[in-house]
UniProtKB/TrEMBL annotation:
Its EC number is 3.2.1.23. It catalyses: Hydrolysis of terminal non-reducing beta-D-galactose residues in beta-D-galactosides. It is an enzyme of class 3 (hydrolase). The keyword Plastid does not apply. Residues 388-496 form the Beta-galactosidase 1-like first all-beta domain. It comes from Streptomyces griseorubens. Residues 28-341 form the Glycoside hydrolase 35 catalytic domain. This is Beta-galactosidase. Pfam families: BetaGal_ABD_1, BetaGal_gal-bd, Glyco_hydro_35. Belongs to the glycosyl hydrolase 35 family. It comes from the Bacteria. Keywords: Glycosidase, Hydrolase. Residues 523-577 form the Beta-galactosidase galactose-binding domain.
Amino acid sequence: MTVSERGAVGHGSLAGEPPALTFTDGVLLREGRPHRVLAGSLHYFRVHPDQWADRLRRLSALGLNTVDTYVPWNFHERGRGDVDFAGPRDLERFVRLAQEEGLDAIVRPGPYICAEWDNGGLPAWLTDTPGMRLRTSHPPFLEAVGRWFDELIPRIAALQAGRGGPVVAVQIENEYGSYGDDHSYVRWVRDALAGRGITELLYTADGPTTLMQDGGSLAGELAAATFGSRPAQAAALLRARRRGEPFFCAEFWNGWFDHWGEHHHVRSADNAADALDGILAEGGSVSLYMAHGGTNFGLWAGANHDGERLQPTVTSYDSDAPVAEHGGLTPKFFALRERLAAVDPTVADRPVPADPPLLEPRTLELTRRAPLLEGLRAAADPVRAPVPLSFGELGQAAGLVLYTAEPLLPPEHVTVSVRQLHDRAQVFVDGDPVGVLDGDSASVTVRGAGRRVRLELLVENQGRINYGPLLGQGKGILGGVLVDRRQVHNWSMHRLPLDEWAPGDIARAASAAAPHGRAGFAEARLEVAEPADAFVALPGFGKGFLWINGTLLGRYWETGPQRTLYLPRPLLRAGENTLTVLETERFGERIVLCDRPELGPPEEYVETFD
């Protein structure tokens, strides 16, 4: 919908009622009365659906009156046209549960969400389309977003406060001012929301700098800010630019996320509570990011890029939030609750839930199964091509691809290199590991053979970039493989989308051959009388993936900081449970069940704006 097509339709008029949230003279109103949004981010897609109600109850106990959530497009439309809103993707059920808990809801439909989520929420089939121009007025991009919004936005519209639901606000795009300045695109998103029935408050959210606000805000729509500190400075900036608008911190970063190979980011309870005090002292509304972080189950963790190297995000999204990854209440929970009670006296009367029960610690015996390469070769029929194909060309979003060729190597030592490798490759010659390649252009020296060899590269997509100008970058081998200066041709490729494997796929790979070697598949049995939460450690293991009863929990990696994977109670059953490991480098001797998380050595989070 264009601006002219939208015409003079005002928010609320399509439903015949004014929006629940309005503002005048810098004061936010709910149904005409002064109001503060005291919100917290909780992403339904990072929490098992059987635990949604419990986590929402904990947000209410924290002192919040609103929950906010992103909607990741790629989570709902993994394949073009295959849209899914069932089970763990039932957004409408999640929003109704929030209403049952007495919470309002803010929905952030993107289409781009960042969120440290794979590809910033954009589907791989879209970003792998040649010539696609993301987050712009590029017609093919707008057409794809329009089709997605046709599926999504009416579902949100039906849950708006004006129709008896809890949705009181909807965000336009997401921190667009950190990315670009195509204002016609941002207006198009705004009009696409209104044209599909959004009548409640619309707002933009950007960092508290003139550059970011200039790029992302829209005249006529509330401009909010995202930050972790200096609230008075942010409030002054917004008020100087947008007179008459209430101060709204759409993301208050009271914690932070982690990358593999770095430290575990934390923020002290007192420091976070003092910054929250500053927002409230400015009369501001606020949303805690995160109130409860949850988990990047499967392969949904995204990645950043610092200009020199990829920074893949860990499986845990605990984010040092007030409500921990498994639902436990942290010292930060109680510190923030005390500050929120100062502006809402009813908070003190809300019951505080007990922490969820945990399984008793124990050690599980490991049974080796198929070795690495034999198991992976058996998992899928090969695709053949004269050159190595990228993940996008193979129609694969995530996981691994095993690339195989048989080049003739001279008798002297040679260099095997990969151009535009995204992201990491283990190199094997005749089944023996010879090195690991990491980065856009990497190489390894291989001993000469004077004959044809079986050259295999196991390439891992470590998470699609979710933020910045490299958003949408492809995965796999994009530029070819060379032996010295000579290109290697005639490849076979095994597609290994681990997050799409059914239990039968796992079993076929794990039983492909007798165990041998240092890496491959292994299993452990876990007997449980009464299911409860647990944390799984894999001491001595190198790098790999862990399933429980056929559900992929996520990645593990000895580089840390994360040392345990969260195992939610609903994924266990009374009796025998099966843990399956795909170890790509080096087996440990055992699997250990722990009654507490180990997320790595802490490092105090420090906010910066680039």
